[in-house]
Amino acid sequence: MYVRKLKKQVICDYGQAEVKTREGILRGVISDGTFVFRGVDYAKAERFGMPKPVEPWEGVKEAIVYGFCCPEIFTPVPHDQFNVPHYFGVQGEDCQNLNIWTNSIDENAKKPVMVWLHGGGYFSGSGIEHYAYDGENLAKEGDVVVVTVTHRLNILGFLDLSAYGEEYKNSGNLGMADLVAALEWVKNNIAAFGGDPENVMIFGQSGGGGKVATLLQMPAADGLYKKAVLQSGGMTKGREITKEIAKRTAELVLEYLKIEPENIGKIKEVCYDELAEAANFAQQQMEKETGRRMMWGPVCDGEYYMGHPLEVGFRETAKNIPNLCGTVLGEFMNNFASPKGEGSKNSWTEAYKKEMLESYFGEKTEDLEKAFIAAYPEKNTADLLFMDISGRKAALEFARAHSKMGGAPTFNYIFTWESQFNGGTVAWHNAEIPYIFRNADYLEPSFTPGETEALQEIVSSSWVNFAKNGDPNGGVVPEWKAITENENYTMIFDRESKLALAHDADLLSLMPEVTVSLAGLMGKKK
Predict the structure, then answer these.
(1) Of 148, 121, 154, the residue nearest 67 (C-alpha)
(2) 73-129: per-residue pLDDT in tens?
(3) Is the Cα torsion angle 220, 49, 44, 85 positive or negative in sign?
(4) pLDDT digits (tens, 9 = 90+) for 286-344
């Protein structure tokens, strides 16, 4: 079959589709009625240079396979591939690309656009890293346009060479400049894919949440998005990379590479493996000098990036950006493995559970158990040993600070659904992502017929509603009130999703007095 729509200059032919963008024609594929465009270049850049628009081309450019992922200093291997299935793509420095899923290529469709910013901190990951990042189901069921973005990371995206010449002025924030370029591409071209350039939501998890928080504080990103979602990241203060730290890190990199300042241009010719070695050297030295763990990330220069909202305050432009933020119950304190010889936490005897709790919480155990039961009456109190507190507190602080501005509403959540895997696994870092993207069936060990589909419907609908209207309410979603400076409303996503008011206030007030060591827990014997 051959179909031509002259108005849109679109050709659909045996499972492939062509769309005309500002730069030229892209050819993607049609998957069960969904148009998919992969590996679309949104910018080009020389090493340590600012991203530049893609040059127009003649003819048709294929957008059928995924583009390069940013080279990684090291590639983290997931500790549980069953629950967090990964896809490891081909790495290359020419990594400014994005992927699009849409059910319409009518420029008048004006569907909400959901732009996903991947996790992995600022040092690893890609827009295709998780199986869960596939946007087909979300686009189809949510009637939205889904975009996932890959950009420069680690030393390629965040080495501050500004002390060595004007051309490197923003080199400490190139990874973020790439995201601005991606959002500019979306604004200029997404209408051709059925999207509304005036209704763009940015959302991200872990490092992706950090990127959302950073974009809120970047003047260059103003006007390129209308809503912001932060998931398990970006809400904790005290992690800023100052100009002083960034400058010293660059000095150490050049020292390792034996490049003199007057020959700074040579750094563009160094192979990536050598850059990675220099990055490791610099980080190790900086840890010795500063006494803090060094990570790559945006440099707070007070101009291109203004600084974390909880450090310097939200910029006025963030006032009118609806915000949705939250965490999961366990985060990194999950129980994928159980203490040696004891099996699942849900199979522990009451005596052993008491022993474990008292060994970590001491005389506070009884009070903590009461507070936990009050907050989560249907949970096992053993979950106290696997519960994240710092992220939860940061999310509430972030939400209250944004709400205090008195502009657009702020909504808070916590994902607490426990997987049946391994006899019962507390919600882990990344656990909510497949439910948002409607890909929960990828998690085969965790799939619970009836429960999984119902929870997925509520969670995904919340994100889609927010993308459409700046409000997660509607349809199957339980009533969800915005948080206020004094009222900590939180949506609890679980077997029964419900809105709660300060449900864990007592628990949070008690937990800072104790420190749980997961490593110690895993090695503890009866």
Answers:
(1) 148
(2) 988 776 667 778 888 899 999 999 999 999 999 999 999 999 999 999 999 999 999
(3) negative
(4) 999 988 888 899 999 999 999 999 999 999 999 999 999 999 999 988 666 555 556 78
DSSP state of 123: T
Q: If we measure between CA atoms, which residue out of 468, 483, 422 comes closest to residue 82? A: 422
Are 503 and 375 spatial neighbours (Cβ–Cβ below 8 Å)?
A: yes
Contact 384, 355 (CB under 8 A): no
User: Got the DSSP string for 51-115?
Assistant: -BPPPP-SSEEE--S--PBPP-SS-PPPS-TTTS-B----B-S---EEEEEES---TT--EEEEE
272-290 and 243-257 are packed helices; what angle lies between their axes, rounded to 10 degrees? 130
Rg, the chain, Cα only = 23
Picking from 55, 50, 47, 24, the residue whose alpha carbon sits closest to that of residue 37 is 24
| Residue linked to tokens 């992927």 | 99
- Which alpha helices (DSSP H) does 404-517 contain, by range? 433-436, 451-469, 505-510
- Helix, strand, coil shares of the chain, percent, nearest 5, are 40, 20, 40
Helix (H, G, I), strand (E, B) or coil at 431: coil
Say how far apart CA 425 and CA 448 lie, in whole Å.
13
Nearest to 330 by CA among 402, 246, 238, 429: 429
pLDDT of residue 512: 61
The whole-angstrom separation of Cα 451 and Cα 441 is 12
Which residues are the active-site residues? 206, 331, 429
> Mean pLDDT score of the chain, rounded to an integer?
91
Tokens of 14: 């045996």
Are 217 and 91 within 8 A, CB to CB?
no
DSSP string covering 18-37: EEE-SS-EEEEEEETTEEEE
What residue has token string 């730290």?
245
Does residue 431 contact residue 206 with C-beta atoms inside 8 Å? no
Scored b (16 or more CB within 10 A) or e, 296-321 reads bbbbbbeebbbbbbbeeebbeebeeb
pTM of the model: 0.93
| Span of 198-207, 247-256, 414-423 with lowest mean pLDDT | 414-423
Give the DSSP H/E element, type plus range, for residue 275.
helix 272-290
Residue 207 token pair: 């490092």
Residue whose token pair is 């948080």: 483
Give pLDDT, residue 342.
Answer: 64
Q: Left, alpha or beta for 56 (phi > 0: left; psi -120 to 50: alpha)?
A: beta
